[in-house]
Specification:
Number of domains: 2
Shape: globular
Mean pLDDT: 92
Largest sheet: 2 strands, antiparallel
Bound molecules: protoporphyrin IX containing FE
Low-confidence stretches: none
Strand order of the largest sheet: 1-4
Distance between the termini: 60 Å
Number of helices: 3
Number of strands: 4
Strand content: 5-15%
Helix content: 10-25%
Structural class: alpha+beta
Order of helices and strands: HHHEEEE
Radius of gyration: 18 Å
């Protein structure tokens, strides 16, 4: 029907075991092919679902890459000894967010 608003629940999608098998496992290799190329890119719907698309996708990807690589090049990031690892479930609220956790940033030489 014309004018119908469709909201996509991306969380349900990204937690679907039928699509990902083990969505709760951090396994970036699921997106990396044999020769280091991006694989299964069309399964990632973070920036669009259907015909509409986020116009900020390129900017967001570049900025995320720059910030992450700058941090990882300069610091070794780890879990403090004796502290629990971050919780896997999310804190409910207007937007879901991680529960607080501690990390150690050790400057690389
Ligand atoms: C990680 C960062 C971002 C994510 C995950 C994201 C995700 C999305 C998604 C899912 C949509 C809806 C697309 C649809 O209708 O199916 C959207 C729309 C949009 N995004 Fe982003 N976005 C991000 C960053 C940005 C940035 C940096 C900008 C601007 C500089 C931006 C500008 C917009 C605009 C203007 C729309 C509305 C487009 C329209 O309705 O035609 N986004 N984004």
């Amino acid at each position: 029907m014309t004018g119908t608003i469709i909201l996509v629940d991306t969380r349900l999608y990204f937690e679907d075991k039928k699509i990902w098998g083990d969505p709760e496992v951090f396994r970036p290799e699921r997106f990396i092919g044999e020769h280091g190329e991006l694989e299964n890119a069309s399964s990632v719907i973070s920036f669009s679902f259907g015909k509409r698309n986020c116009p900020g996708e390129l900017h967001a990807n570049i900025v995320t890459f720059l910030i992450l690589t700058a941090l990882l090049q300069r610091y070794k990031i780890s879990n403090p000894v004796g502290q629990p690892t971050p919780r896997q479930d999310l804190k409910p609220g207007l937007a879901l967010k991680p529960y607080p956790f501690q990390v150690v940033f050790e400057k690389r030489k």
